[in-house]
Fold this sequence. Notes:
Blueprint: H1 2-5, E1 19-21, E2 25-30, E3 35-39, E4 48-52, H2 62-73, H3 75-98, E5 107-115, E6 123-130, E7 137-143, E8 146-153
Parallel strand pairs: 4-5
Antiparallel strand pairs: 1-2, 2-3, 3-4, 5-6, 6-7, 7-8
Amino acid sequence: MFSKLFSKKKKLEEPTDPYIYDNTITFNWSDDSECWVAPLIELSSDAEMCISPKEYTDIPQSSSCKLLIEAKNNINELNKQALNYLIDETSNFVLDTYKHSITIESFIPYGIEIFEHEETPQEYAFTYNPVFDEGATWRVRIKNNTPIEWGFDD
């Protein structure tokens, strides 16, 4: 009885092997961001796809991988839609708050994120680093290939 009370909890093991989905995308575990990442050079040389699993270190769900492949195949159009949405929705806020008049060049593409723990199927977010807000990450949430909301983390 006491052995169970005072035993140490087993530490969750972080994956060391890459996860390869359908021989099309290879994801590696990122300790820093606690998600599975893969390069997204179609967006920019530094961009990444990131899947934050439902449970810590679980492999990505196949539905998330399929969604990222669809987004990757249409990346230019989706990125354009996301940036236009961001500009339309935030231009007054950015001007008032940061005294910056935004254009497409105001946002540096960073990647695409899926948060499986949010349980929002068919949703992902484009992420951007704004030139006027150093260190922040701005997001445009996409559902069914349509921008639906924006937000940022300082």
